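Exercise 7b. Backbone tokens:
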């Protein structure tokens, strides 16, 4: 772990990402995507998402999905860092359908530069350790480009400051932890984005291809590390967001405090006003499969950049 101009995806490319989502509403600074073919019906306890309201964000070509206002049970009485489970209401918002890609983040850096906050740059280009390359964005003569074959992989080795700066540049913001959890779990507060039961085929975790001792040798998800965003469409959440379990963790807006869940407001919690650690949600290719994602979070200093943490943005929306 390290402490520390290419165009964004075309509109056509971004439109190809659209397959699932939630109830229709309007959004600013985005264009309407074509109506997609409904996804196949899933069996068992897995939910069938409604036809989506999906838009394409102009600045970076990201497909965003609408999340209607609602209420859910946040946290877990089982997981120490997520106690107590408590009811939370969130206003309507939009969230990125996938994690931000290397191509998108490189376009941002080519326009804004790789600025320094808290003593480190927003991104550590080409980061690696012991011969293993983690960050697949390279900088040459001040120009940032993804390595060949990694344009559509999620950006990693990005600090919380870099994640927040990217979202602001794109006309968005980091989601709150409550928004992120609601988009992943839905109003019925399911433990996995796709339903009640864990399914290895729906997410990218540390499987037989992974080199770590905690790997799951009984399953092959086809990836040794993070992979192209949206590679596991069967793992879509109730509103059509992809990769909310596995691939890479994702920075959220909130600071972390041990007692925050016990004193959290019911409506639109924003997290503590200050702290020393920020939160990332979602698990990654680096992690063993979890029994329940409802309370899983990683806590880390805002300046840290890791090869298993990326970013997903959100945008506020008004109910009609």
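Sequence design result:
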């Amino acid at each position: 772990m390290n402490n520390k101009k290419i165009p964004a995806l075309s509109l056509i490319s971004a439109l190809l990402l659209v397959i699932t989502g939630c109830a229709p509403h309007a959004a600013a600074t985005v264009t309407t995507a074509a109506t997609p073919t409904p996804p196949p019906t899933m069996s068992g306890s897995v939910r069938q998402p409604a036809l989506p309201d999906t838009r394409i964000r102009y600045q970076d070509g990201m497909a965003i999905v609408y999340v209607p206002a609602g209420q859910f049970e946040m946290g877990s009485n089982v997981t120490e860092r997520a106690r107590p489970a408590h009811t939370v209401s969130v206003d309507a918002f939009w969230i990125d359908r996938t994690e931000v890609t290397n191509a998108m983040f490189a376009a941002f850096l080519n326009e804004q530069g790789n600025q320094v906050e808290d003593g480190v740059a927003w991104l550590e280009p080409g980061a690696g350790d012991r011969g293993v390359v983690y960050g697949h964005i390279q900088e040459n003569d001040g120009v940032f480009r993804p390595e060949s074959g990694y344009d559509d992989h999620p950006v990693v080795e990005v600090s919380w400051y870099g994640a927040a700066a990217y979202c602001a540049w794109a006309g968005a913001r980091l989601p709150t932890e409550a928004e992120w959890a609601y988009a992943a779990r839905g109003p019925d507060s399911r433990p996995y984005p796709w339903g009640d039961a864990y399914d290895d085929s729906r997410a990218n975790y540390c499987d037989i291809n992974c080199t770590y001792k905690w790997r799951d040798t009984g399953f092959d998800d086809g990836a040794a590390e993070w992979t192209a965003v949206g590679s596991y469409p069967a793992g879509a959440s109730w509103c059509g967001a992809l990769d909310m379990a596995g691939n890479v963790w994702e920075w959220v807006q909130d600071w972390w405090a041990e007692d925050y869940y016990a004193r959290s407001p019911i409506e639109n919690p924003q997290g503590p006003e200050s702290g020393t650690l920020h939160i990332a949600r979602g698990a990654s290719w680096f992690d063993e499969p979890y029994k329940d994602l409802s309370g899983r979070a990683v806590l880390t200093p805002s300046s840290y950049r890791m090869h298993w943490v990326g970013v997903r943005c959100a945008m506020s929306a008004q109910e009609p």
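Instructor comment: The chain has five helices and 17 strands. The chain has one domain: 11-316.
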